[in-house]
Amino acid sequence: MALMTGKEYIESLRKLKTRVYMFGEKIDNWVDHPMIRPSINCVAMTYDLAKDPQYADLMTAKSNLTGKTINRFAHLHQSTDDLKKKVKMQRLCGQKTASCFQRCVGMDAFNAVFSTTYEIDQKYGTGYHKNFVEYLKYIQENDLIVDGAMTDPKGDRALSPSAQKDADLYLRIVERKKDGIVVRGAKCHQTGSINSHEHLIMPTIALSEVDKDYAVSFACPSDAEGLFMIYGRQSCDTRKLEEGADVDLGNKQFGGQEALVVFDDVFIPNDRIFLCGEYDFAGMMVERFAGYHRQSYGGCKVGVGDVVIGAAALAADYNGAAKASHIKDKLIEMTHLNETLYSCGIACSSEGCKTAAGNYQIDLLLANVCKQNVTRFPYEIVRLAEDIAGGLMVTMPSEKDFKSDTVVGKNGETIGDVCNKYFAAAPTCTTEERMRILRFLENICLGSSAVGYRTESMHGAGSPQAQRIMISRQGNINAKKELAKTIAGIKPNAQ
């Protein structure tokens, strides 16, 4: 099958029987729902960019499994150049949508599961790697979207999975059959889950033998029997339901999504199983996925940051403040922070290495440094953007007020006349243009897109402490001590 277009992708979703619930009700036509469609448009962009010749080098790759041209989001990294192109592709997609385009989790899961299953088979003689290779061929040949799902609800985090009061707070195997397994539980905060054709499930933490039923990795269709999703809320999300909503949305065309994915005794056939009780490999799969996904943030958040910086600069132009030295300095600082994130993404890619399975993984220490910076810098970037934009960003009347013909003035002025008069700014823009850029900044700093740019930057791919733990493990402090001893003239074994 050839690469799909964005339109073909959207039509392929209509063929699924995915069960979606929102605001306590089942959503039958979720593909065209005004709160969901912007996130689908983001994914569609990843298809359309792959069909555009000018982006072919970034957006497509030659499959090492089939030899065919595939979307890079379905690719197994074959070199450090592939790892760098991944980051550049993610930056491009962020620039084109100013939102989360939702395919990174699948790509990162592919690469983590591919290398981990190889090593499981080497130790136990299982057939997981072959299962996964055949599965990924299917995904590549049909140009499908896969949601990589790792995060469990977790319940009382002081307790292990099997010690929870409710055993389903971590996804687990509840029955083993001759032809497969039955699983029960849920995955939380799942970015793009509703927009995916398939789900690729991984454990969420390192596990011990007592928790072996939770050591499970598998794939299943998004409309599998027993699987359903509950759509998550976002700040200002119901603006999308307002009749004629446009300017007030800030980013009308694109947006992100998260959902709770519930597995209510879902059957998984043997050929879709990639880990089934081998608890000693759960930690490896988690660590590798986390590393790839932390690398991803050095691309996608940077692309969105490019748009935020541009919007802040426009706001300064429209306010007539672009020549002020403090405005120039703030834009420089925003750029410095954004490019630092990108530098980390490229660095951990450049220092990548080949796994035993043959694909490439990033430098884990540098990937964790990348994500640690992402937990901070986007917050400072949007703080500076809000500073430049001014308070009107959050106190401005609605779009309907600017267009209202209700008479309020003594000389027949309408509400629209009044708003357009008093909120006019520099002659380089119309009042509506100024309103549009301020609403965009509101959307990205405080509104629905703040989910992807701010809070996801904090907690996605692991919260800040998760990276600090990995940095501590991989920072090799003892080797650094020996360096200092050598230069200071201290004997090597001295304490």
UniProtKB/TrEMBL annotation:
The segment(s) forming the HpaB/PvcC/4-BUDH C-terminal domain are 282-489
Per the record, the domain of life is Bacteria
Domain HpaB/PvcC/4-BUDH N-terminal span(s) in chain numbering:
5-275
Is this entry keyworded Oxidoreductase? yes
Q: Does the keyword ATP-binding apply?
A: no
Q: Which UniProt keywords apply?
A: FAD, Flavoprotein, Oxidoreductase
Q: By its UniProt entry, which Pfam families does this protein fall under? A: HpaB, HpaB_N
Q: Which Gene3D superfamilies match?
A: 4-hydroxybutyryl-coa dehydratase, domain 1, Butyryl-CoA Dehydrogenase, subunit A, domain 2, Butyryl-CoA Dehydrogenase, subunit A, domain 3
Example of a GO MF term: oxidoreductase activity, acting on the CH-CH group of donors
Q: Which InterPro entries has this protein been placed in?
A: Acyl-CoA_Oxase/DH_mid-dom_sf, AcylCo_DH-like_C, AcylCoA_DH/oxidase_NM_dom_sf, HpaB/PvcC/4-BUDH, HpaB/PvcC/4-BUDH_C, HpaB/PvcC/4-BUDH_N
Binding, FAD:
191
Q: What is this protein called?
A: 4-hydroxybutyryl-CoA dehydratase
